[in-house]
Every structure is written in structure tokens, then in C-alpha cells.
């Protein structure tokens, strides 16, 4: 297609889109040179045809407020603040209820993927409160906004945009109807599009991987993610530790999330686990500010590392561990109470 033919074709698509699209559609987005170059690249790659991409981008509405959110300076909250806003009674109660309602699916996921049910429940709770808060942004809008209007992360988000368009095509979904977070995370587990295509599973066998509306697929997808990121069934996530203050501690704390040392290595540097651990177990030291000016030290083990693959934050991993423990306690306490209740006599 020569440039004049391409320009005429684009103009025709824009005119048709303006005639048929809702009032909020910004068909001018399609005419942008950078958007046209992206379309050229995708069509040349053979995974899309031009009309289907133009139909999407003629209806994309850029969201400048997303850029303002991304430009806000990030501040790291101390653990005592993060925990107060993340580990709460409602999440625990709702998590135990979710486990009870989906016990068979969670048990099947544990058998198939060797991932503890309480961890799956905790992840779905933290990420979307069991599907209640999955995001209200159209993903075509959010991913396009960041991919084309935020240079610092543009390359990454254009790749995620491509993954999103591919998954919509594979699942037979209209990409203009799918919603998620302002940063493009989707569904109950808040997968990014590339994560969806790699790790989402059709866990109920209905032919679709639906992490927006189907708790079975959400459960199976999280379990699959953790199995493929090295989760070890039955292992601990963290253990408390004591330290001998010194430069070595600062160095260890700066080496976030990486299992570069064994427990034996750490012992020789003055780090003592407060639970039995073999010397050959890989571990990473991290600290938590439990109150203003009060610091606790912990060793993160292999399963801690697996959780930080999901979200690269020690605070996140510790919150997931605490929620998982409390949900498990509440779930089994409810089972024990139910089993101890006398059966009602027949009338």
C-alpha cells in the first residue's frame, strides 16, 4: 500500500468510526503517526489485519489522568502502615468464605499444582478482594495511553498492548469491552496481558480462560503461576531472625528478593534464624518497621521469593503470608466447629 492509499484508507476508517462509535471515542488517536507505525509493525508481523486494529484504535480514548498517576512520586510506606491497610478482618472473613465456597476447586488446584489453597486465596484477596475490585478502566484505553504517551515505560506497555490484543483475539473477546486497572492488570488475579497468555489456564474446561468472571479459572491460573515460579509445597515462607548490627546487614538488606546466600552463609555473617533451618536452605534477609523506629528482621525463603515474582515487594509477600495463615486458621476452625455440632434429629 503506497502512502496515499494508506492515508485515504485511514481517513475512511476514521470517518466510519466517527459515524458508528460512541461519543467518547477519540478517532483522532488512530491518525497519529506513532499509532500508525505500531499498526504497520503488527500487520507486518502477520498476527493482525489492518481493519481489526484500526477498528480498535479508532475507538481508543486516551486517559491523561493515568499519566498523572504514574508521574506522582512513589513513597514506600513502613510495614506498620502497609499492614494496617492490607491485612484486615474483612479480607480474612471473606477469604475463609471464598475457600468454603470453592473448596473442591482449591483442593484440585493443590493436587495438580502443589500450591497451598490459603496462598491462592490470599493472592486473590489482596489483588481484587475475590473479584470485587478488578478495575474500571477499559484496557484498550489504559494500555494505549501508557504505551504511546508515557515515554519512560512506552516500550514495555506497547508490548503489553500487543499481548492484550492477542489474548482478546484468542478468547474471542471484543478488546473494547475488557476492563482492568489503570496500569493494565486484569481480572481476579490482576495479571498483566503477557502473564495471562503465559500462565492463565482454563481450569473448568469450558474452552475459555476467563479470569474476570470465573473463580475456577482464577484459582487455577494463580496456582499454575506459582508452580511455574518454583513454589515448594509445605515449605515456610518466612522465619524471624536476629542480627548482629554492622555493615554486612546493610549490604544484605540492599540485596532485595535475591536468594544469593544460604542460611549457613547468613549465620556466618551474624544472622540467626529463630526457627530450625538447615544450613543449605537459600534465604534472603529483609526488615520490617513494625512501629516508628522499631525494626524486626526476617529471613525470606524459597516461597517468599516465589511471591515476590508476583509482586516485587517484601511488604506484599509478608502480607500474603499473614493473610494466608489467618485464612487457613479461620477456615479450619469453622470446619472443626461444624463437625462438632450435633446432627439435627429427624422429625
Poorly predicted regions are: 1-25
How far is the first residue's CA from the last residue's CA? Answer: 82 Å
Shape: globular
Biggest sheet record: 5 strands, antiparallel
Number of strands: 7
Alpha-beta content class:
alpha+beta
The ordered string of helix (H) and strand (E) elements is: HHHHHHHHHEHHEHHEHEHEEEHH
Rg from C-alpha positions? 24 Å
Instruction: Give the helix level as a range of percent.
Output: 55-70%
Please give the count of helices.
17
Give the strand order of the largest sheet, numbering strands 1, 2, ... along the chain.
Answer: 4-6-7-3-5
The whole-number mean of residue pLDDT values reads: 91
Proportion of β residues?
Answer: 5-15%
Structure explained in plain terms:
It is a single chain. The protein is built from 17 helices and seven strands. It has helices at residues 3-20, 28-31, 33-45, 50-57, 64-71, 79-86, 89-101, 103-113, 117-128, 139-149, 154-171, 193-199, 215-228, 247-254, 263-268, 302-310, 314-340; strands at 137-138, 179-180, 238-243, 261-262, 271-273, 282-291, 294-300. The protein is an alpha+beta fold. It is globular. The protein has a five-stranded antiparallel beta sheet with strand order 4-6-7-3-5. A two-stranded antiparallel ribbon has the order 1-2. Strand 6 (282-291) and strand 7 (294-300) form a beta hairpin. Mean pLDDT is 91; it is low at 1-25. Helix 3 packs antiparallel against helix 4 (50-57) and helix 9 (117-128) packs across helix 13 (215-228).
Amino acid at each position: 500500500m503506497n502512502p496515499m492509499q494508506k492515508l485515504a484508507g485511514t481517513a475512511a476508517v476514521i470517518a466510519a468510526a466517527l459515524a458508528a462509535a460512541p461519543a467518547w471515542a477519540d478517532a483522532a488517536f488512530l491518525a497519529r503517526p506513532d499509532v500508525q507505525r505500531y499498526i504497520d509493525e503488527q500487520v507486518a508481523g502477520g498476527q493482525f489485519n489492518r481493519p481489526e486494529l484500526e477498528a480498535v484504535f479508532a475507538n481508543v480514548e486516551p486517559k491523561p489522568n493515568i499519566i498523572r498517576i504514574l508521574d506522582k512520586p512513589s513513597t514506600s510506606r513502613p510495614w506498620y502502615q502497609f499492614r494496617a491497610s492490607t491485612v484486615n478482618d474483612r479480607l480474612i472473613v471473606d477469604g475463609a468464605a471464598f475457600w468454603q465456597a470453592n473448596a473442591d476447586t482449591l483442593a484440585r488446584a493443590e493436587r495438580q499444582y502443589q500450591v497451598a489453597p490459603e496462598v491462592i486465596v490470599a493472592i486473590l484477596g489482596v489483588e481484587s478482594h475475590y473479584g470485587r475490585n478488578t478495575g474500571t478502566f477499559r484496557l484498550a484505553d489504559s494500555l494505549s495511553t501508557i504505551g504511546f504517551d508515557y515515554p519512560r515505560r512506552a516500550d514495555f506497555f506497547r508490548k503489553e498492548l500487543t499481548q492484550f490484543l492477542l489474548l482478546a483475539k484468542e478468547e474471542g473477546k471484543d478488546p473494547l469491552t475488557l476492563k482492568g486497572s489503570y496500569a493494565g492488570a486484569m481480572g481476579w488475579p490482576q495479571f498483566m496481558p503477557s502473564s495471562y497468555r503465559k500462565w492463565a489456564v482454563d481450569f473448568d474446561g469450558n474452552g475459555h480462560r476467563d479470569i474476570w468472571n470465573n473463580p475456577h479459572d482464577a484459582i487455577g491460573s494463580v496456582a499454575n503461576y506459582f508452580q511455574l515460579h518454583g513454589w515448594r509445597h509445605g515449605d515456610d515462607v518466612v522465619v524471624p531472625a536476629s542480627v548482629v548490627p554492622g555493615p554486612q546487614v546493610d549490604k544484605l538488606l540492599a540485596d532485595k528478593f535475591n536468594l544469593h546466600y544460604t542460611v549457613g552463609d547468613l549465620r556466618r555473617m551474624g544472622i540467626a534464624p529463630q526457627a530450625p533451618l538447615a544450613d543449605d536452605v537459600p534465604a534472603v534477609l529483609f526488615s520490617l518497621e513494625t512501629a516508628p523506629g522499631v525494626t524486626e528482621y526476617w529471613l525470606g525463603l524459597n516461597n517468599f521469593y516465589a511471591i515476590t515474582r508476583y509482586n516485587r515487594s517484601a511488604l506484599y509477600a509478608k502480607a500474603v503470608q499473614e493473610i494466608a495463615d489467618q485464612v487457613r486458621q479461620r477456615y479450619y476452625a469453622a470446619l472443626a466447629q461444624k463437625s462438632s455440632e450435633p446432627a439435627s434429629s429427624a422429625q
